# Entry
Amino acid sequence: MSTDRKELDRREFLKVGGAAAVTGAIVAGREAVGAAPQQSYSKWPFAVAPIPMVRIGFVGVGLQGTSHVENLVQIPGCRVTAICDVDKARIAIASKVITDAGHPAPKVYDRGPRDFERLCETEELDLVYTATPWEWHVPVMLAAMKNGKHAATEVPAAMSVDDCWAMVEAAEKYQKHCVLQENCNYDRPEMMVYNIVRQGLLGEVIHAEGAYLHDLRSIKFEDRSEGLWRRAWATKVNGNLYPTHGLGPIANCLDNNRGDRFDYMVSMSGPSHGLQDWRKEHVAADSPKQNEKYVCGDINLSLIKMQSGKTVIVQHSTNLPRPYSRINLVQGTKGLFMGYPNRLYIEGKSPRKDVFENIDVPKSPYQHPLWAEIEQKAAGAGHGGMDFIEDYRLIKCLNEGKPTDFNVYDAASISAVVGLSVQSVAKNGQPVSFPDFTRGKWKTSAPWEIVRA
# Structure
């Protein structure tokens, strides 16, 4: 939940995560045995009555959590009225952000790792937003929806197929939004590419590639923040532990859950050397970290086939020296876009035949209108402004009573790559099926519109 939680709290977190993480026994979730939903959404696309002032309880105000709080206090139509964390120092920092913005001091919940349950049971809230370690995302959201609150989470939404189904079933049963706040869906290049796709400039999109390629070795071995919990996942499971940054934006371009859907996946991991080599060079010989056994491969490669036949490649690598990249490749029948660096080729339109043109995204004529309209408000916010935009859009949809940009089915389908990759890797790369979390809604759901500020 925070940057400096005590070791006792860390063990409690990892105990919960250990129970939820290793879910290789389920191939395709409840769909495989034909279970029916307890209750579907009463209308589709799902929306609720407008909420003019969204009252928010925020669970987990570490570095990323406090960054979201900093965004929310600047967005009209919402108030953070309660916060929860195991670290009182982080509580104080987040509370000051709220009061410095001229808002009333929030109600504090700091009695331990499960005090979010008391928050959800006792506070009058519209939304519970969580930025905890991964293993707590689903427990927090389930508690929120059970107690009549909408839910939003940092990424990934869930670490197992079972937990993906739990989100979907709770959202349908309690008629609540359950939203994955995937900030990369709102990054400037990704939104530009989506705008290009919607204009038909790439023709029919038939293939895409995304990734999370980020050297996190030093962060994982810190004695604070993510170092207290993120490294532990490499001791428990072998697969793609963090797919949504790369997969979310390209899934939008492929109309996942909106006319098409992920069908099945094969996944394989390479050897595990990166964390061991880093530990050998940087960690004291008598540190307890020297006794950890890492099982997650340094590189995971997953290949997804969609119902339409379209193909997707998703990569994950965070334990090796490499520059940051999410790849962000979208191939259509008339051209393609490739990120890192940003390049575009459109047949018949690009200046030179069969040669990429480099794209200056802010100056591009294809820039998504949302960025043009909200850039000044997002200036200085986390991750180049996309964090502010994702928070802004969530509050705007709730204020106006509109369907959220992304829904619980999106959260489940792109997060399911974690659990499904673990299963496929364990079976030497055998195909594993994606559940149809929408139970057929994907066939009639419209593509994500070109949203405006």
